Amino acid sequence: MIGVYQNLTTRAAGLGLHVSKVVFRGYMAPQRLQKMHDDAIERRTKLVLERESELQEQKLKDDRLAKEEEREKVKRQMERAQAEHTAQMKRERFTADMTEQRETAEQKAWLQAAANEAELAHLQATRERLGLQGADMAQILVARTQGAPAKLIQITRGVPDSAVQINETA
């Protein structure tokens, strides 16, 4: 049986020793106990692998959620920027419209004032040219405002060939 340990005997002979007998003093467990021990090691290894797999899966889910959250944040920022841009454009459009309306109103007021001044100058020139009094000018302005009469009856005195003139417009 010592032939099984040939390396041991050769090495010992090289050192000047002679091995006559080898005794195994280790622990030899019964087959059933060894199987239980092997099963326990296998279970522990399996649990470690499952835990590592679960940790990897959780980390992957965390990374996915973080990326989704980041995308949502960017999306919200873009929507907010778009809304701010739209609001700014509306404000600018409103301001431009108000400015345009104000300028149009100012221009109309200026044109109306110019027309009024021209009308007043025309009436002054007419009054001076015809030598009319204020009451006569008032009659002319009232007649002009009322428009053309539906019926005109005119009687003139003091003219040698006096005549009565009647005009009807319908």
TrEMBL record:
<protein>
    <submittedName>
        <fullName>Uncharacterized protein</fullName>
    </submittedName>
</protein>
<feature type="region of interest" description="Disordered">
    <location>
        <begin position="58"/>
        <end position="91"/>
    </location>
</feature>
